[in-house]
Sequence to fold (1350 residues):
Amino acid sequence: MQLKKILPLAALTVALPSLGLAQEAEVVVDATPDAVAALNTEMVFILNSLLFLIGGFLVFFMAAGFCMLETGLVRSKNAAMQATKNVALFSLAGIAYFVVGFNLMYPLGDWVIEGWLGGVAPTVLEPVGVALEDVDDIEYASIGSDFIFQLMFCAATASIVSGAVAERVKLFPFLVFVVILTGIIYPIQASWSWGEGFLDEIGFLDFAGSSIVHGAGAAAALAGALVVGSRYGKYGKDGKINVMPGSNLPLATLGMFILWFGWFGFNGGSQLAMGTIADVADVSRIFANTNLAASGGAVAALILTTILYKKPDLTMVLNGALAGLVSITAEPLTPGLGMAVLIGAVGGLIVVLTVPMLDKLKIDDVVGAIPVHGFAGIWGTLAVVLTNPDAVLSAQLIGIALIFGFMFAASLVVWLILKVVMGVRVSDEDQVTGLDKTDMGMEAYPEFSS
Amino acid sequence: MQLKKILPLAALTVALPSLGLAQEAEVVVDATPDAVAALNTEMVFILNSLLFLIGGFLVFFMAAGFCMLETGLVRSKNAAMQATKNVALFSLAGIAYFVVGFNLMYPLGDWVIEGWLGGVAPTVLEPVGVALEDVDDIEYASIGSDFIFQLMFCAATASIVSGAVAERVKLFPFLVFVVILTGIIYPIQASWSWGEGFLDEIGFLDFAGSSIVHGAGAAAALAGALVVGSRYGKYGKDGKINVMPGSNLPLATLGMFILWFGWFGFNGGSQLAMGTIADVADVSRIFANTNLAASGGAVAALILTTILYKKPDLTMVLNGALAGLVSITAEPLTPGLGMAVLIGAVGGLIVVLTVPMLDKLKIDDVVGAIPVHGFAGIWGTLAVVLTNPDAVLSAQLIGIALIFGFMFAASLVVWLILKVVMGVRVSDEDQVTGLDKTDMGMEAYPEFSS
Amino acid sequence: MQLKKILPLAALTVALPSLGLAQEAEVVVDATPDAVAALNTEMVFILNSLLFLIGGFLVFFMAAGFCMLETGLVRSKNAAMQATKNVALFSLAGIAYFVVGFNLMYPLGDWVIEGWLGGVAPTVLEPVGVALEDVDDIEYASIGSDFIFQLMFCAATASIVSGAVAERVKLFPFLVFVVILTGIIYPIQASWSWGEGFLDEIGFLDFAGSSIVHGAGAAAALAGALVVGSRYGKYGKDGKINVMPGSNLPLATLGMFILWFGWFGFNGGSQLAMGTIADVADVSRIFANTNLAASGGAVAALILTTILYKKPDLTMVLNGALAGLVSITAEPLTPGLGMAVLIGAVGGLIVVLTVPMLDKLKIDDVVGAIPVHGFAGIWGTLAVVLTNPDAVLSAQLIGIALIFGFMFAASLVVWLILKVVMGVRVSDEDQVTGLDKTDMGMEAYPEFSS
Fold:
């Protein structure tokens, strides 16, 4: 307990009687607030780190949410493969982010190219039983808690991609892409804002990553969907769009709920602090706004699909809720509750309206990842200006353009190289059989499928 | 609070100046205990709010638990509809509770009719980065954390209803009912106890809502089940009761586990405070008692079904665990661990014995929501007198009668109006086909169902 | 700030003026740091208890993880039974641990046989609203929080067993075994290390239970698998090993993710303290190492199965991640991140290499519990010496031998007695039909199974 060092007064009581009294009192005056301040410092550090740890396990669980959502939305013949991809991508993201991503993203002065390209070094945590003076940033939180929290954001980008390119991308090329995305592409981009890079300096605001995380994942997904191409049979030669319904909608619903659950950590943890009254009240605001934006998105999608198609659509409701969550992510703090509902609702409407658009463009996005994370992400990033007086529309537009542009271009290059070097697409024949059998020799539901 | 012993100095400031000596001593005397007290105040506020935030995300996840439980217990032809209802009801509950419910429930002096009908106004949170002097109640917690926690309880009542009326209620009339239930009916009733209304004044005790939440949901569910009627084919003309087994029992089991998980937040968070040694030790007691009551309920149901029917029954074991949880919810703090097991076990027995009773009365409760949340809820509310010396049986009985009576009557009126205005029941033909196809044009498991 | 009201020193102000001033100053000097120290003591107690409560609900959820993993990996005709076993075992474990296990495990001086056999008494928690002076250990945490946390570890051992003996063990004999395992066998063994028994004294180190929990469960599972025998048809007379694929791999994947999620609490909570900067930074290290070890295990299993069998195998990837988690559990604190990846990766390799070995020995372990929790557990316990300078290889070897030896021997005796008294194995005919129908009269998926 480092307090021992800074509570020096017990011994003083022996010395005091022989001293002049005013001097004693002075010592007390100096020492005592120090003891309180030291305890306060300690508590703030603990509570900030705790926020990251709680946020960390909540956002970790989003990996399960993405996996269930995607596995439920693919056909059963590709479900085991989709689950494998999700477990493997999360595992590889962790290693890639540790080896290079974290320091690339948080150079904090140690840039390779100032403001644009972070530092290169594996993550090193504080030593075991760290002493106060060895703490990296005593006003912030432990490195380990920060690392685990940020890692989960990085992995989320890869989870977004896996949904879009499901049912036809080859496993190992996909995983190579994941390593490059999570180790290099995402961290570079994220450093521009969260590593105190140039986007941060021009005033671009994206609280928890509507663009930095969700939009980034969607841009990488779009590049992937274009290079890998659509699923065999999805778009008929006559222009007909074949519906390929998800095989397990209750599982997809579970995935959505898990994502919603994790989003409390995603947005709440992004307050980055919980050690003061103001911070914990802000985290509380964020929880409430996050929840109501999801509500708004789900309800809007439910109503709009019922109006447009006469019947509600569960997958649209799920994606509407997720779009509401993405929409509030750029600014979950400043809106009032009513505005949070509205911001989320617009996100839900965007998804219902843009999902068919992608199909018309013959861009095959199996789970609707590009509308949910990309289009709603753009909306959310723009919506910051509605409630945050510090936001400037031009900075938001520049940020969106650069983030989406860079993420798309860099991903496209990687996907194209992978296409040439390894091939990225499962053959049409194997797609008909299903990737579980052809590429894994197993079935997700060996006793159920007709 | 042990601080009483060791923060002695404020009064000294009056005495010291007369000693001539210590202008500085005055500073010490004023500043020091104030600094400690201020830090303590801050920490208590943060820890209380944190308890609500943790409780909030845990109880949020119960929405997923209800959804999986109910989706697993309906037939596969209605599973997508059941999932849709659960996502939509939770979303609408959030909006309704924000717009009117929260302040109706917590008028705290601002009553429309003193002690009976709360205030009417949308929820407004503390401002961003709230200053100490602008905090609503510095001895309690942030409004946002309180709102998110209480919202989850409100939504739970609607989740209980959706299980009972599954497989034949129309989506949109059901959702209208949800809005009225969560925006108006439940908040009015809950204000009587938790809003410091008249039930609180007569000494009715219901710690986390065996009656206020679970019984209330069950009463609304009973009204719904009566007005909507039983599922087509459930009760034959010859008096035969047709078993309609759930389509996905592993999913239902997952739902039960998620509910148990969330219940730590439900009961633990209802301590409403975690900033003192006594409070955190009480939350710990609550965790332990909650867990053991669920254990007792599950084991009792397992044993009794095996005795009665020679074979154990998984759905009864699941409902037994849930009944154990409901039973301990009215008083999870004062029982010892052994008593917690017993209270939960009685809940489990009640469910096994009353589920067939409802069938004999031709009340079709698809998931057993009325026995689990209603009958076990009554038992739990009565059982408070066993361990809490402050409880009075008469007050418990009055509370139960008024809560169930009001919730049932108000819900019945709404259901009857909805029946006339919109119709609440899906036609028999459509029930045979299944609501997923007829009302949504989709299937939950398009590749599995025979 | 209500503390202002309760500063109680009216008495002192009367007394002080008559005293010498040095004495006053002494009062100030003494009292002030005391106030800070008291607040610090309070906060440490709260934060430690909170760590256990968070750890408690996270590790609780592992019960759901085990249930989903095992229910997904059995054939659908035994899925409802597997779910029933998991709910019942967790419920019974709670009761058994309360009645006798907890105090048997934590005698802390109150041994029946010093260092070898703990005390016998049901768990009693601190009283409601406990006063500071009645707290059991003010430097540690509330009894209730400790109890709930440790209970979850105890229950995990039983969950491990249920996976290994799935699809042919009789329900009630299995549950009797669970009661003895969780009430007596595991607590006695765990007391040797965590109850400050003789293994603790010789310097055996197992931070969160690679051997004490996971190895212990695996040893009990091995005894069970040997006594119960293999599933009917698993090993042909011609030496052929029949593959019996799991019926619901997405559900098994969910189970793995839930286990990974819960493991943050399992390992993080085992720091046992979060009230200082050093402790919260250590918990953070543990979170990061735990996550990366799981990553290492999953990736290693993915690569090795692809090398060995040309195709990746989802169940091996799942078990690889779990083996990575088990491997880091004995020492999640001292390794650096790179070492954590390696320790986990070796665990993943061990699983891929030893699963076929068990089949060659005709030991039928349905979910791979013995390789995952046993062999990876041994590896993890040995690997402590790689990074923890306090670890001694001989002590680790002695600990492993005694833990596995005792757990296996004691379990074997119980299983053999149960075999004679109750019979432990479902008949071959009933196995062919499936335990759900024969022993429960129900089906897990009545509409899906072919």
